[in-house]
Amino acid sequence: MKIAIISFFDSLRFDEYPITHSLGAMRLGAYLQQRHPEWQVRLRAFDERTWSAEQAGAALSAEDFDTVGLPAYIWTLQRSRELAAALAAADTAPLVVCGGPETRAMDHSDWPEQAVFVMGQGEEPLTWLCEQRAADPAFAGLALDPDLPQPIYSAARPRKGAFRYAVPDRGDRRLPHGLPLFGSDFDRMAQGDPVETDFAWYETARGCIYDCSFCGHNTLPFFATFDLDFVRTEIVNMRDRGIRRIFLIDPILGGKPARGKEIMRMFRDLAPEIAISAYMRPEFLDDEFVEVLVESNIHELLMGLQTTNPNVPKHVRGNHFEKIMKFVPHLAARGIPWRAELIVGLPGDDMAGLRESLRFTVEELRPWSVHAYHLTAIPETKLFELLDRTDEEVWIKADERLRVVSASSYDERELRDMLVYAGAVTSLHAHLRDSGVVQPDYDLLDREVGRILADPAERPRAAAAFIRMSQDLGREIWRHHTPAAPSAALAGRA
Q1: pTM metric for this prediction
Q2: What is the mean predicted confidence (pLDDT) over 38-52?
């Protein structure tokens, strides 16, 4: 039995994330290999920049895989569908299994009729499907029983009937454990497409104890973890493998405060050379957690403020400002680099609210960096339920990629102005940081952004870069811009 688990990567982002295989693919492969050591499970990755479905399909067919697993995320779905079609056209077609968040709501009518779709946690359903294929080399989507007690659907088995089995058991908070990542057995999966990097995505938990209505992590409606002994083994494996930087994608570091502290202590004691980027919720912080972070090798903490606008419904994001102000403004001064994250386009927000969110973030919280993101309506979230409900008080509209384009509090033109402004302020903040300005002053940031956007000669190119919310593109604009005052005047409190 030969199984391929597919990832897609962007080679243009290798400076930031130099790895080809996704964490999801590695976890799925490790689970299959642990359950069935006799199978040949292989990781295969394709570059988005040189993507050809025909070439990828031919390469996989040449290896004669019995089953191919494809990712279903907003940013991978089109390529996964193209690859499924290429594989279906092969002389000997493998079983194609597609899994990921999008399978709960995606249109699958234009996929090959033999394809199979998995909802929810994929480890156990994928194992079951591979076992069916091993027993019957002709098994595929059209062979599914309509009454199958699995979160699996196809052209022969409607999604509606599978939904009831996609609801996770709230009593089981232990995640499916496969082979520990980056150990000796892990190398077998990477044969033919090795993992050669000092960077890795990593996780110790899934799901979240908060219920922010825009967040895709809430598709697992509770918090579940890997055993701490298992995590300890993987930390040692990463250290011994030469991993020196990780992005810990737990929705919040460790999932709960006590567990987050324990995870950081393990990294501190077992692998102090590994630099860590991780998501953190300000409400998790206390004096003890701050001291643990000071002692740890933190590359960057990412904390989502999202907005300070009181007109944004509380179900979207509720912030505990007393807790935020007690600990957060002092993190950078204690040597903990952290990133403040805002979302542009939340329903209830507008340009005035966005400006105040940026002012508060820059002047009051004093983060090391500030990033802003265009709101996406993720299927199966509470925010998604507001889509096109224009007869209600709060609503949103979105484009074909589910990026919000208008809402009850702003129109399309106003949103464009908000995106441009946020992209300009955050990239100028980053540019000044690069230039050695420790704490840029918001009023002067605002003034300089206003000046470049009011200049007919500079506005078109600048606005086109800023609206993309890319700090690299924005930095390039600011590097070629002559400020109205010397950079020292932009420094504010240095």
Answers
A1: 0.89
A2: 97
